[in-house]
Amino acid sequence: MTEYASPRAIAEPPQQRRYLPGMGFDWLLPLYDPFTRLLGIQAAHQRLAEQAELESARRVLEIGCGTGNLALLVKRGRPQLEVVGLDPDAKALARADRKARRAGLSLELDRGFADELPYPDASFDRVLSAFMFRHLDADVRLATLHEVVRVLQPGGSFHLLDFGGNPDDLHGLIARLFRHSQVMRDNWGDRIQTLMREAGLGDPAEIAHLTRRIGRFTYHRAHRAG
Predict the structure, then answer these.
(1) pLDDT given at position 173
(2) What pTM was computed for the model?
């Protein structure tokens, strides 16, 4: 009999932290999955999972898992993996849990923030992040990468997917809209790799990209030193 893990609350900080829901507003959450299907995000997720070389992994964490699409894709492809998803949005986690139950898949779904990961040191072989990094302020980005280093096992790897590209030659509607955004500025050029290096991740690199009408998706990889 399959056991399912429901979202469980991590101890809240003294003051309730704000976060940006996946669609910007709670009331738009029911549109999140149809919207991402329309944009072809599943294919982008599949490529990220392939990049992560999960055949050699045992325990995988997705930070900013939202409604669980990437975590579920990973679990379907490799049922033997222990897959953990973390997100601050309880409503999104509840949707992820319902989807996992319908699919007969077991996920651990935790509520929390990427810069305060509620996991022991060196507890994951892989950490994944898809279209979440751009939501973080600059100081939170670096703190998140420090946490990624902490929870990765020596030799483990971090795989990040988000919008990116050359800031002087951006492609796609969303990229152009956010070209001068303070939140998005660390996505352009080689800034993500620079932040990875500052946090202590080794060999950071942009290893692939996909160009869509809405923008250029970039794939980044880095390792924790063994």
Answers:
(1) 55
(2) 0.83
